[in-house]
Specification:
alpha/beta; 6-stranded parallel beta sheet; two-stranded antiparallel ribbon; 50% helix; globular
Length: 387
């Protein structure tokens, strides 16, 4: 196990009706707020009214900035930065899923910075301060509600890039599983793939002697595997939705990273897909991750076999651990298919004419990953395995 420091400043308020506490929690930080959200689904569900009522009752003045789309755009981030500066905004409230939260974080680090906010996403500078952000979570998937990460797409070149810093963790996250009852099945499934991918990125490590976090990763994966089919069959099953929502946070709040080196190669590969083709991030990960596994599993067959046995219940073939490992990968693909996700680039609607371009862009800043280093040629091989 590696040395580590674990600190997570996000206050989690979880359960039925907790969005009613939005005003009280927000007022602790500022009385002048930017309310940031997406295309309007929170208005249809009534969540927007409940949040606004809570803010007004707490004496919080707010200005609204809707319009966040999946794979959030730099243009809206820049607009939000300009609004916050001109209006003297002191806090950003993100009501939505990962895209809204990531956009809010980008605005937050951009407000105090004198340069171009895109500098953070091209690794020119590390975020050291941020206008504080709070969250009312609507989609369990990205885990951004308690992470220090943000991913933004630059329309100039359609580049999707990430930035991560401890200061970027939200101050609080209000999490009511009831608000996820109306999520479309495909969005629920995409969220599941995203959650599982966050666990996989940590599980596939070269760090030895990490049995505790191995077991925590495996339990989180099993929680998703068990509860997502229940939620798809019975959308208003509170217990299943609650398990999924909490698993989403645990998968990406860095607890599962403690003492071990993570990979993140598959995420960076998928970012090229969703930047150019605007596919759902979780759907892209459902296609990319099994392909990545097929490309790298021989590096540590025992670890892949361990996953297959402990998570998927594959009988251990001591004479051929490789067969056990490959069966685990096959079961992951079968699970993705069973919940309505694509398993190939073709099913995802991605043609094969830009694979080399995406591979080059993914490796622009150097090889990806730490479990296995992937340059452009290796990334292209992953894309071809995913085709």
């Amino acid at each position: 196990m590696d040395n580590f420091v674990f600190e997570n400043a996000t206050k989690i308020i979880f359960g039925k009706g907790v969005e009613k506490e939005t005003g009280r929690e927000t007022a602790r930080w500022s009385r002048k707020v930017l309310l940031h959200y997406g295309s309007g689904s929170i208005k249809k569900s009534g969540l927007h009214d409940r949040v606004c009522r809570s803010l007004r009752e707490a004496g919080v003045e707010f200005m609204e900035l809707p319009g966040v789309v999946p794979n959030p755009r730099l243009g809206l981030v820049q607009e939000g930065i300009d609004i916050c500066r001109k209006k003297g905004i002191g806090f950003i409230l993100a009501v939505g899923g990962g895209s809204v939260i990531d956009s809010a974080k980008a605005i937050g680090i951009g407000v105090p910075y004198k340069g171009d906010v895109w500098d953070f996403y091209t690794n020119k500078v590390k975020a050291a301060e941020m206008l504080p952000v709070g969250v009312v979570l609507t989609i369990p998937a990205a885990g951004s509600e308690a992470s220090g990460g943000s991913v933004v797409t630059n329309e100039d070149g359609w580049l999707k890039r990430a930035h991560d810093a401890p200061v970027m963790r939200p101050r609080f996250a209000l999490m009511n599983p009831e608000v996820t009852f109306t999520l479309p099945p495909y969005q629920t499934a995409c969220g599941a793939a995203d959650i599982m991918a966050h666990v996989f990125e940590r599980y596939f490590t070269r760090t030895a002697a990490v049995d505790l976090t191995d077991r925590l990763c495996e339990a989180t994966l099993q929680t998703i595997i068990r509860n997502v089919p229940i939620a798809l069959a019975h959308p208003a099953d509170y217990d299943a939705r609650a398990e999924i929502m909490w698993a989403s946070t645990v998968a990406h709040n860095d607890l599962l990273s403690t003492g071990r080196n993570a990979d993140w190669g598959s995420h960076m590969i998928e970012h090229e897909l969703s930047a150019i083709y605007d596919v759902a991030h979780g759907a892209g990960l459902a296609v990319v991750f099994p392909a990545w596994m097929k490309h790298v599993y021989k590096t540590d067959v025992a670890r892949f076999a361990q996953l297959a046995v402990r998570v998927w219940g594959v009988p251990c073939d001591f004479r051929s651990p490789e067969c056990t490992a490959l069966e685990g990968i096959a079961r992951l693909q079968a699970f993705n298919k069973s919940i309505g996700l694509p398993t190939t680039l073709k099913e995802l609607g991605v043609p094969g004419d830009r694979l080399e371009e995406m591979a080059r862009k993914a490796a622009h800043y150097g090889p990806l990953g730490s479990f296995v280093k992937l340059g452009a040629a290796e990334i292209l091989s992953v894309f071809k395995l995913a085709s």
